Amino acid sequence: MKGKILEALRGSKDYISGEKLSKELGVSRVSIWKHINSLKRDGYIIESSPRGYCLISTPDLLLPYEFPAVEGKIHHFQEIGSTMDVARDLAKKMAEEGTIVAAEVQTQGRGRLERRWISPKGGIYFTAILRPKISPAYAPRINLMASIAVAKAIRNLFGLKAELKWPNDVLIEGKKVCGILAEMEAETDIIKFVNVGIGINANTAITQEGATSIKEQLGREISRKELLSFVLKEMKEQQTSLTKEDLLQEWRRLSATLNREVRVIAPGEEIIGKALDIDVKGELVIKKRDGSVKVAVAGDCFYLS
After folding, report:
1. What CATH class has 2-57?
2. Residue 113 has pLDDT above 60, yes or no
3. If DSSP codes are grouped into helix, strand and coil, which group holds residue 10?
4. pLDDT higher for 257 or 7?
5. Residue 90 host element (H or E)
6. How far is it, in rounded angstroms, from Cα 19 to Cα 164?
7. Which pTM was predicted?
8. 64-254: CATH, from 3.40.50.150, 3.40.50.1370, 3.40.50.300, 3.30.930.10
């Protein structure tokens, strides 16, 4: 109902009366009044007068009714431990494809290898529940898909040269602006779900070395709602290419990793050499200094040149 009220207010060039809202939306005027007050508590500036209601401004919060196309799929929290934890519970309870868990602040945000992901106000923190109808063998491509979506959103909206660092980071000017974490539950030949956690430094003040934010790059704050909408749209489009060569070609085009000397610390080994390519599974192909070729399935990648 909040979403419907906001839609009506946005569509009106003048004040709209409680009586008109009541008739259009099929609820009582008391219900309209209660929802208006709830929206005000959320941070919406709505002017009330004898003529009715007028929307003055909206908060830059990732509230469900700010995303009409997917409003019913968004679970929003002002503060949460980790969106990944909530999403895992929802996925096990058969939450539908495209369900989103978003938070303004995470107190226990995490990245790969259980590393802490600092998640203060101003960032974009969400987990998307995906149920792709693909073989588990293609699952590593989901990280590539998500990173492409974020990089393209940043490029198209803000003109910043966002690039991809294997396996799951987005960089601007060589500094990390986004991290991605995917957790999967699958059987031998079928994926039950993949939860993709994405953290974007949007309007955050950066204190960590090697990190940046979009605000820092532009010198101004951005609309987090606009960026999240674009990322979700791009993710939906990129998912259609999960099993296609097109996805790999797009990752290569945006990559900052290929053709560089790298050191990959993988489980049980260290690989040093030139990053040549990614294979059909999204694994990094490295030509070692002795001339042999090695494939890195996962690990931390460091640039040496």
Report:
1. mainly alpha
2. no
3. helix
4. 257
5. helix 83-92
6. 52
7. 0.89
8. 3.30.930.10
Fold of 261-303: SH3 type barrels. (2.30.30)
The encoded tokens of residue 275 equal 């990053």
What number of CA atoms fall less than 13 Å from residue 36's CA on the CB side? Answer: 24
Residue 166 identity (one-letter amino acid): W
Residues of the chain with CATH 2.30.30.100: 261-303
How do beta strands 162-165 and 169-172 pair?
A: antiparallel
pLDDT (0 to 100) of residue 111: 63
Comparing CA positions, the residue from 198, 213, 231, 223 lying closest to residue 126 is 198
The Cα–Cα gap between 255 and 83 comes to 27
Confidence at residue 305, expressed as pLDDT on a 0 to 100 scale: 84
Report the length, in residues, of the chain: 305
User: Model confidence over 156-196: pLDDT tens digits?
Assistant: 999 999 999 999 999 999 999 999 999 999 987 899 999 99
**pLDDT at 260 exceeding the cut of 60:** yes
- Where does the chain hold its CATH 1.10.10.10 domain(s)? 2-57
Question: Could you tell me which residues come within 8 angstroms of residue 115 by beta carbon, excluding any fewer than 6 positions away?
Answer: none
CA distance 124 to 229: 11
Which residues does 163 contact at the CB level (< 8 Å), separation at least 6?
151, 170, 171, 172, 254, 255, 256
DSSP labels, 49-76: ETTEEEEEE------GGG-GGGGGGEEE
